[in-house]
């Protein structure tokens, strides 16, 4: 109808273009990192941390929360789980935008190539967030916002190419297949 043609002329007049994803890089120095073993999902006292501990730590790092448990901090008294190790330099890349699954697969493949040379990292992660207020999540269900709009998954890839896949969804959302 007339409404559709009005919309089309609006878009062509204003030359709506596909927005390129925004890429930001940062280097985190002297970062406390949990010690992980690919075959120990529950972790082992004094040997490795669990998947849950890693997920919590990752949330703190991505939100730039201090990990040093200072009692004077009003924001957080969180500290890195035990056992941990200090990494002199960690590389953080954030890509913001609408990213299709094929591009995520390409990113995963490129990240796996990183283990070939230089062989410094023991593991790396790739976290994919859906928008908190996205209308859909996994499967056929609508995405419920409720409190936080959780809608993400995280790959942890190890040097031997074992991997963990962690998923988080809101309380009323369908679980992924």
From TrEMBL:
Organism: Lophotis ruficrista
A GO MF term: ribonuclease P activity
Entry GO CC: multimeric ribonuclease P complex; ribonuclease MRP complex
Identification of the protein by name: RPP40 protein
Alphabetical GO biological process terms: endonucleolytic cleavage in ITS1 to separate SSU-rRNA from 5.8S rRNA and LSU-rRNA from tricistronic rRNA transcript (SSU-rRNA, 5.8S rRNA, LSU-rRNA); tRNA 5'-leader removal
Underlying gene: Rpp40
